[in-house]
Amino acid sequence: MNKSLRQLSTLLVGVLAVGTIITACSSKTDKGSSPAPGSASPAASSEPSKVPDKKVPLSLFMYGEKVDGLNYNDNPIVNKVKELANVDLKVEAVSSADYAAKFGLLMASGNLPDLVNSNVTAYAQAVEAAQAGAFIDLKAYYDKSPIIQKYVTPEMMEMAKDPATGKYWRIPMAWDKAPKGSGIAVRYDLVEKYNNGVWPESVEQWVDLLRVIKKANPTKSVFANRNIGIMLFYAGGTPIFDMYGANPYGYRIVQGKLIPNVLLPEYRAAVKVMRQMYDEGILDKDFATTTSEQYLQKMDNDPILLNTFETSGITWNANYGATKLKDGRKFLFMHEMKKPPAELADMKYTYGFGGSKITSDGISIASSSKDPDRAWKVIEAFTSDELVNDIFWGEEGKTYSVKNGKKVPNIEALAKEWTRYSHYFAFVPGYLGAPDLDRAKTEISLGEQYAKELYASIDKHVEKVTANGEGSLDGWDTLGGMPGYVPTEAESLKKPESRQSIDKFTVKAIMGELSMEQLDQEVAKWEKEYRSVLYDNMQKFVDENKEKLRKLGYKQVDW
């Protein structure tokens, strides 16, 4: 459970920018058009219509990590779908590490399965394949399906529409029930122990507290970074940048103009603080090379004070600490600084954003499928009330019980045998589509008082990020943090190179290998080489779609 959830957490905040050219799919305009749904068109209910008489063979390509003892072709979830849709379903599940490469090979082969679960790691390839006609338009099916509409609203479906072709090539994964945003998470038990429970009020006071903790724990890490490859600064490495509202990889909109964060005075000020922390030994000397595995070990064993988590991540870490480590650690979202940095233009830039109501994951039907109606039945079966309950809650009497009309999870049973794999099949409702279950598990694990404090900090944080609307702190969202925007091929190819350049001069400045003046020169070089290719097309999209973006909750358009 621990391992698979950590893999999932990493997956949900990451995306590999890939630009594989799809050569096997025709670009004829009628190839990806939507057939008129046949007898498999759903009735007006939240359960699939009558089971078809004739069993047909279908295939599904999906994301799914390896789980000991799991056969993706033979398990309670898939077997129930086979029964409801009357299909002989062959499933190929591929891990996140291999997904992009296998997806590219699959598209190039021209031999597509009936159903394709597109994954965040291959979003650019999926868009390219869709625009080349690899998948049918699903709008006609969607319009007649209350099963799918229960999770994906018309507004969310519009967000998933391809802006280049106008086609609805996937049913997007819903993300509206997931806790909104991300923010700086604090080990409040360390604040209690080393600062008498008093929240620091400024960046300087946070650094002072880190000094105290380091002095008391000279051989331990107190501020560590997590290098995930495609982003060198991640998780524990970003809180200082986030206090200045200037994640190195993100951008800001000021009076309608997109400004990369590395050009901001806030970024420069944050680098100076990180440089000071590195000189004093507060920031780990190996911060630039700490792998995810090494970082997670430090998280388990060392008094690391600050992290940047998605809201779902803070509850996961709180649960993990309470049930696995049992060392009294207590995670809460950071209180707003009463004395913000002088360089910070507005506190709103430190709050983060609510995030999109959909993710870049989704499920599609191949244009080459001989039975798209039955393939749609499979999508509906996975999304039926019965299966959604099974995916998240499992089996009554085994993984949960009902007391006074309320479901009560059996946490141990869920962890051991069900939710190790079932969430991978939440193609439409989303991996975090059961907030009632998540909260119930958290309240049981943490106890009443800690759970109350945690959710109070979450509610306060969510209120702020919701006020900021949709977006992305680090520009890392596959959709660019901007509803309806799809990066160009040139952007997809240049973005990793740009990040590597940012990583290089930021690390050198923190380690003292560059003076601050030399850092300014390197930033100027970066702007000359990358700003136009990464931001000109996005700027044009903003200029041409302001009203649409407003309606979709992208409030930055008016900042």
Quickly give the CATH architecture of the largest domain.
Answer: 3-Layer(aba) Sandwich
Helical fraction: 40-55%
CATH superfamily of the largest domain: Periplasmic binding protein-like II
* Mean pLDDT reading: 88
Major beta-sheet overview: 5 strands, mixed
Task: Tell me the number of strands.
Answer: 12
How much β-strand is present in the residues? 5-15%
Q: What is CATH's topology name of the largest domain? A: D-Maltodextrin-Binding Protein, domain 2
Globular, elongated, flat, extended or rod-shaped: what is the shape? Answer: globular
Low-pLDDT residue intervals, each spanning 5 or more residues? 1-32, 38-44, 476-480
Supply the number of structural domains: 2
**Class derived from helix and strand content:** alpha+beta
Task: Give a short summary of the structure.
Residues 32-49 have a biased composition (Low complexity). This is ABC transporter substrate-binding protein. With 559 residues, this protein is α+β, with helices and mostly antiparallel strands.
What does this structure look like?
- By secondary structure, the chain is of the alpha+beta class.
- The protein has two domains: 2-178 and 357-393, 3-Layer(aba) Sandwich (D-Maltodextrin-Binding Protein, domain 2); 182-351 and 470-554, Periplasmic binding protein-like II (D-Maltodextrin-Binding Protein, domain 2, 3-Layer(aba) Sandwich), CATH 3.40.190.10.
- Helix content is 44%, strand content 11%.
- The protein is built from 21 helices and twelve strands.
- The protein has helices spanning 2-13, 76-85, 96-109, 123-131, 139-143, 146-149, 154-160, 188-195, 203-216, 239-243, 265-280, 292-301, 311-325, 372-383, 385-393, 411-418, 435-446, 448-468, 489-510, 516-544, 546-551, and strands at 56-63, 87-94, 115-118, 171-174, 182-187, 251-254, 257-260, 306-310, 331-333, 358-365, 400-403, 406-409.
- A five-stranded mixed beta sheet has the order 2-1-3-10-4, with helices on both faces. A three-stranded antiparallel beta sheet has the order 8-5-9.
- A hairpin with a 2-residue loop joins strand 11 (400-403) and strand 12 (406-409).
- Helix 2 crosses helix 14 (372-383), helix 13 (311-325) runs parallel beside helix 17 and helix 19 (489-510) packs antiparallel against helix 20 (516-544).
- The radius of gyration is 24 Å and the shape is globular.
- Residues 1-32, 38-44 and 476-480 have low confidence and may be disordered.
